[in-house]
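User: Predict the structure for this protein chain, please.
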Amino acid sequence: MHKVSSFFLFASGADRDVLKDCPTDHNKYVGIGATIFFTGLFAALAAAYALFTVFDSYVVAVLLGITWGLLIFNLDRYIVSSMRKDSHFWRELVSASPRLALAIIISLVIAKPLELKIFEKEIEPKLIVMEQQVYARQEAETKLRFEPAILQIRQDVIVLKNEITDKQLQRDELVRLAQQEADGTGGSKQRNLGPIYKLKKTDAERAENELTALIRINQQRIALLESQLAALDSAMMTEVNALVKSKRNGPAARLEALSRLTAQSSAIWWANFFIVLLFITVESAPIMVKLISKSGPYDSLLHITEHGFLCKEIETIAVSTAELKQRTTTLGEPEQTYVARKLDTELL
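Assistant: Here is the predicted structure, written as C-alpha cells:
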C-alpha cells in the first residue's frame, strides 16, 4: 500500500521532501496523483483501440498506446505540478486557463476513440450503408466515363436507320405514284402504261436501287457501330465487376458514421455529449482540485522554500556585483561608467 501511495505522490508532481512536513496534505496529493494516473491509463486504452483500427495489429496498438498514455501522464503531471497557489482565486484561474484549455483538448482526444467503441454496435450498420454508397458512386463514375461514347454510337445508329426509313418512304411514294398512273387513279387520270407511267416507274426503280445500296452500306456501318457498342459495354461491365466494396473500418470512417448517427438521433447526440463532458471533467479534475482547494501547509512551505532559493539567488548576485564594483575601482572613470551601465542592464 505504501508503494502505491508513493507512486501516486510521484504522479501528482508534489515535492515529497516538502510534503513530509505537511502530513495533512498527504491524502490530497495522493488523490491528485491517482487522478492523473487513471487519466493516462484511459488515454493509453483509447489510443490503443484507435490505433488498432488503423494498423490492425495488437503489438503496434499496445506499444503506441502505452507511449501515448505515458505522454499524457507526463503532461498532466507537469501541468498540475507547475501550478502555484496564492490568495487570489481569479488570478489563479487566469494563470491556469491555458492549462485548462489544454486539458479540454486532451480529454477530447482521449474520449473520441472510446466513444467509437461504446457506439460500435450502432456504427457497424452505418458503415455498411456508407460502403454501399461509396460503391454506388464508384459504379456511377465508371459508367459515366463510358456514357458519352455509348450515347454517340447509339445516336449514329439511329441516324443510319432513319436514313434507311426515309429512303423507304421515298421509294414507296414513287411506287405509289407509278401505280396510280397505271390504274388511272392518279396523275393523268388515264388508265394506260404510257410514257408518263414509264417515267414514274423509272423513278421508282431508281429509288429501289438507291434503297438497296443504302441498306447495304448503312447495315455495314450499323454492324460496325454495334460491335463497337458491344465492346464498350463489355469494357464498362468489366470495370464495374472489378470494383471491390472496400471495407470502411478505419477511424475516419467510424468518426463519419458517428457524426451521421448524432445528426440523426438526439439520444445518441446527448449520450455522446455527456461522454465527452465526463472525460473533460476527469481530465480537468486535478487542475480544478488545485484551483478550488485552499492554500494548505504544503503550498506555504513550498512557497517559503522557493522564496528561499530566490533570496539566495538575489544575495549571490548582489555579492558578485559588489565584488565586481570593488574590482573596477582601479579602472578609469569611463570604464567604471561602462561597467555600471552593464550591471544595471543585467539586473533590470
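DSSP finds eleven helices and no strands in the chain.
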